[in-house]
Amino acid sequence: MNSRISQINKEYKFDIGLGILRAILSFLIVMSHCYLPINAVGFWKNAFNKTEGCYFHVRTFFILSLYFSYKTLVSSDISKKIRRLERLFIPYIVWPLIYFFSRKWLLLLIKVKYRRVLTLKDLKFQLLYGHSFLTPFWFQWNLIFISIVFDSLIIIFRRNYNFILLLLGIASFILQYNGKNVLIFNSDFNYYRSYTLGRIIESIPFSVTGFLIASFQVLTLLKKCRIKVIIVCFSIIYLLVNFQIFSNINGFGNPGFKMYFLSICIFIIFSMFPSEKIKNKRVINIIRKITNHTAGVYFMHVPVFEYTEMYIICIQRMTIKGCAIVYLICYFILYL
Fold first, then answer.
1. How far apart are CA 37 and CA 125, in angstroms?
2. DSSP string, 110-163
3. Mean pLDDT (whole number) for 80-109
4. 178: which DSSP letter?
5. d(CA 190, CA 192)
C-alpha cells in the first residue's frame, strides 16, 4: 500500500493538463446556467447539439474529484477523512447562507429586483438537498454522500474494495438502464429531492472510475504512449458525438454510457499533457493560481449572474460573452 501511494504522490505533483481541464469545465458549468443554447452558432452549436449541452462537465468533475481524493479515501488516518469531509461540508452550508441573507439585505438596502423571492422553505430545501435557489450544490451533496459511501466500503472491505466499488458502478448502470432509478426517485419525491437523490446512481460510475484510475495508476501506464492514447481518445469521441452507438435512456441528467465514455476520454486527453517537462516554476505557479479557484466559480456563478444581469446586457441575453464576464467576475472576487 505504501509503495502504491508513494507512486501516486509522484503522479499527483501538480498536473497542468488536469488543472487546465478544471478551468475549462468550470466555464462550461457557467454556460449551463447562464447561456441560452438558441444563441449558439458555429462551434458552440455543434458542441451543444452533439454532447447534449456539454453535459460531460460535471461528470468529468466527479472523475477528477475521486481521482484526487484516492489517497485520503484509502488512508487509515481518520483525521484526514474528517478534514476532507469538512472541506466539502463547509462551502455546502456557508455559501447558501451567505447568499440567502445577502439577498434579503440587498433587497432592503437598494431594492434589487429578483426573479424569485426566497423563503425559509427554500433555504430548508437548499440545505437538505443542495438544490433550491443554488442548484449547482446538488453536486456537492452527491460528492459528500458518495465520499461517505466509499469510505465505509473501503473500511469494511479493506482487501477487496476495488472489486466492491467496481460492482457498485456496474449495479448503478443496471439501475439506470432498467429504469428503476427514475421510477424510485420520480414517484413519491418532490422536485428538489428527486433532482439530487436521483443523480446519485448516475454519478457513481464516474466516481468509481476516478478512484480506480488512481488505484491502478492508469495514467502512469498511459503516459508511456501519450500520442497513441490521445489519438484513440479523439477517435472514440468522434464516434460518440457523431453516431448513436448507445441507446438513449431516461434520467436526471443525460445518464448512460455516452456521457460516461465521453467524460473518461476528455479526462485522459488532458491528463496526457507533459506537465513534467515544464520546469519554469513561475509558469507553474501562475497556472496553479488560475486553476485553484474552479470550485469557487462553481459555487458563485449563479449569484454573480443574478446580481449582474440587470446591469450588463450580454449577461441578460445569456450570450457567450456574458458567460465569459460572469466567469471573470467570479475569478476576480475569489482572487481578492
1. 28
2. T----SS---HHHHHHHHHHS-SSSTTHHHHHHHHHHHHHHHHHHHHTTTTHHH
3. 85
4. T
5. 6
